[in-house]
DNA sequence: TCATATT
């Protein structure tokens, strides 16, 4: 209080002193923004603290964002705090890092597409240095003399990147090329992972006939990705969501067919009416079993992306970020909804994890890769009422990490499960079943 | 290999 401590203000809106957002994890849920601000101000200049809260309950989610006026200050906060101290009530030390997408934003990194195959570093360099100082340039190559037609480039400042975007994107043809360059902000790490996950998913859905003996997986029934996006170019897309649908293939008909009938009206929006009957629930199953999946769709017009990237010519990442809001790769709770959960009214605890009393919670390792929450729950329900079952998955790829938790109502059930299941062969490996470690020891008083 | 979370 008192001192008006502004960062080097200078004049109007120069592109200098960009503020930096940090993500902080392992923040005890009871701490206030004021407390956190006071704490972080001891090590760096911090303009703002925002606790991340549950949308519904407003409860702290145990993490927050910090806004620092410069990279220098942000780095001070990181080096002073990250893994350095544990706040009272937290189970492990503070995690302080650049928020998602922040590093990329600060690097002014661009993706350049539609480069000629035979382009040289010198040519690209010469062209792009007209607009600013190149800090880094990588042309993706298949062999030393052939490019893959794209590159990544970092400029010193955002203004330089904006200048080249304005000047060249979609406008400039390089020698030896018949199409103009495509220039856009490079994907953030998160976007890349989302893309990767989708690719993985589409690969999985491309093996139509492998389900002879085992139970068909949810994704096994999906048509290959990339068939729907074109329709977003028509007017079928809900107008209110159009701008956000950067990866429209998440509206997969196969997926939504597994959702309750009441949802299908909205689930299928974006699909032209004449197609609904084709991919509708009943016919879909028939097509699937008849092995039509590979051939039914390609007859549709315009199936190829006009460009290597969906999103095409537009460099549509604004200043901060945003989008990604709709980019859920099928989450475990979606799957839970979709699968037949009926069995025994188990709550698999999607969302907040329900813990049982002390001694009633299990940690399980070597869970078969293909197990989800529901399968885990099923495997352990013989020994008592399962309050929750959670398999941990890689956030980006959706791949199981092969460990998880099961919580029972009573320690007896848990012990029984250990006796019966520990060391039991399930899938390829032997399960390891043990009591979950208890993190919260004594209360501080 | 123990609940890690990005308004």
State which percent range the strand residues make up: 15-25%
Broad shape: flat
Give the beta-strand count: 14
Structural class: alpha+beta
Strand order of the largest sheet: 2-3-1-4
Tell me the span between the first and last alpha carbons. 32 Å
Q: Biggest sheet, in brief? A: 4 strands, antiparallel
Helix content: 25-40%
Provide the low-confidence segments as ranges. Answer: 1-16, 207-351
**SSE pattern:** EHEEHEHEHEEHEHHHHHHHEHEEHEEE
Instruction: Count up the helices.
Output: 14
The whole-angstrom Rg is: 26 Å
The average pLDDT score comes to: 69
Summarize the structure in short.
The chain has helices at 33-41, 71-81, 102-107, 121-128, 158-168, 189-205, 253-256, 264-267, 273-279, 281-289, 293-296, 332-338, 373-380, 411-421; strands at residues 20-25, 48-53, 60-68, 95-98, 109-113, 134-143, 146-155, 182-185, 361-365, 386-393, 400-408, 425-426, 429-430, 432-435. With 445 residues, the chain is α+β, with helices and mostly antiparallel strands. Strands 2-3-1-4 form a 4-stranded antiparallel beta sheet. The chain has a 4-stranded antiparallel beta sheet with strand order 6-7-5-8. It has a 4-stranded antiparallel beta sheet with strand order 10-11-9-14, with helices on one face.
């Amino acid at each position: 209080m008192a001192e008006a401590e502004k960062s080097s203000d200078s004049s109007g809106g120069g592109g200098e002193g960009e503020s930096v957002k940090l993500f902080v994890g392992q923040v005890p849920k009871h701490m206030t923004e004021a407390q956190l601000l006071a704490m972080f101000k001891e090590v760096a200049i911090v303009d703002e603290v925002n606790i991340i809260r549950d949308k519904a309950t407003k409860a702290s989610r145990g993490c927050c964002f910090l806004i620092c006026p410069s990279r220098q200050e942000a780095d001070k906060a990181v080096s002073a705090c990250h893994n350095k101290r544990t706040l009272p009530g937290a189970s492990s030390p503070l995690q302080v890092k650049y928020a998602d997408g922040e590093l990329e934003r600060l690097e002014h990194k661009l993706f350049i597409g539609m480069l000629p195959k035979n382009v040289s570093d010198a040519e690209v360099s010469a062209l792009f240095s007209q607009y600013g100082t190149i800090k880094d340039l990588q042309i993706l190559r298949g062999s030393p003399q052939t490019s893959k037609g794209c590159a990544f480039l970092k400029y010193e400042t955002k203004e330089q990147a904006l200048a080249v975007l304005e000047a060249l994107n979609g406008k400039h043809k390089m020698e030896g090329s018949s199409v103009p360059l495509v220039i856009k902000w490079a994907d953030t790490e998160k976007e890349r992972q989302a893309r990767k996950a989708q690719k993985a998913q589409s690969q999985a859905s491309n093996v139509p006939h492998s389900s002879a003996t085992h139970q068909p997986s949810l994704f096994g029934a999906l048509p290959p990705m990339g068939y729907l996006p074109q329709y977003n170019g028509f007017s079928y897309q809900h107008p209110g969501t159009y701008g956000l649908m950067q990866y429209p293939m998440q509206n997969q008909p196969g997926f939504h067919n597994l959702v309750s009938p009441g949802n299908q009206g909205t689930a299928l929006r974006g699909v032209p009416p004449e197609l609904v009957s084709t991919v509708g629930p009943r016919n879909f199953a028939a097509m699937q079993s008849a092995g039509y999946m590979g051939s039914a769709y390609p007859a549709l017009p315009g199936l190829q992306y006009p460009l290597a990237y969906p999103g095409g010519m537009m460099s549509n990442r604004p200043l901060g970020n945003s989008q990604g809001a709709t980019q859920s790769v099928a989450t475990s709770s979606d799957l839970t909804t979709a699968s037949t959960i009926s069995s025994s009214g188990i709550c698999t605890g999607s969302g907040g994890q329900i813990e049982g009393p002390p001694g009633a919670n299990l940690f399980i390792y070597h869970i078969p890769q293909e197990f989800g929450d529901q399968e885990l729950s099923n495997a352990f329900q013989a020994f008592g009422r399962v309050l929750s079952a959670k398999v941990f998955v890689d956030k980006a790829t959706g791949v199981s990490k092969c460990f998880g938790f099961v919580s029972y109502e009573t320690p007896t059930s848990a012990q029984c499960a250990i006796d019966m299941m520990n060391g039991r062969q399930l899938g390829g490996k032997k399960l390891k079943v043990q009591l979950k470690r208890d993190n919260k020891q004594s209360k501080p008083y």
